[in-house]
Design the sequence.
């Protein structure tokens, strides 16, 4: 998600097509939400799939398996920190990564317009402060990508100095 958030990866063009991936790698892909599992009978139940308008796309179905691997992922935990839900952008989905990318670019565009409004080529002294909570792989890689992007934006003509982009990586471990 950090690559989508920093626009290094185009989330639409580089999206994995699971049906094509399954065909190429000799496995079956079934889209659906698991609603039940029967370990003794070795099958899972997928819920009925409906379109946004309520039309049924696929009925409830049961799939047999020999070996089942559950790779359900995870979501960010704000640990009940006041203000986190209201002020943070979590990177749990493509939509959230796209939102981060848009807001990051908007910060640059706002700073750029303030420079252009002065009528000179002075590099902006506006500081952009970005805080990343979580120094795991995604947080560290996001910080590195943002640092790189700050330098690339100058090459593309943005007048915001990379030295004025402050990236804080926050880790809560003891």
Sequence:
């Amino acid at each position: 998600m950090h690559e989508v958030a920093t626009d290094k990866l185009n989330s639409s063009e580089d999206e994995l097509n699971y049906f094509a991936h399954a065909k190429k790698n000799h496995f079956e892909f079934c889209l659906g939400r698991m609603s039940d599992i029967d370990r003794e009978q070795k099958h899972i139940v997928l819920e009925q799939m409906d379109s946004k308008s309520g039309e049924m796309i696929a009925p409830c179905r049961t799939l047999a398996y020999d070996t089942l691997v559950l790779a359900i992922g995870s979501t960010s935990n704000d640990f009940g920190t006041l203000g986190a839900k209201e002020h943070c952008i979590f990177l749990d989905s493509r939509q959230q990564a796209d939102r981060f990318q848009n807001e990051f670019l908007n910060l640059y565009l706002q700073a750029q317009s303030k420079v252009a409004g002065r009528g000179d080529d002075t590099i902006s002294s506006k500081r952009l402060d970005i805080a990343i909570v979580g120094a795991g792989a995604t947080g560290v890689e996001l910080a590195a990508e943002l640092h790189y992007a700050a330098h690339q934006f100058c090459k593309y003509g943005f007048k915001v100095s990379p030295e004025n982009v402050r990236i804080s990586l926050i880790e809560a471990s003891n």
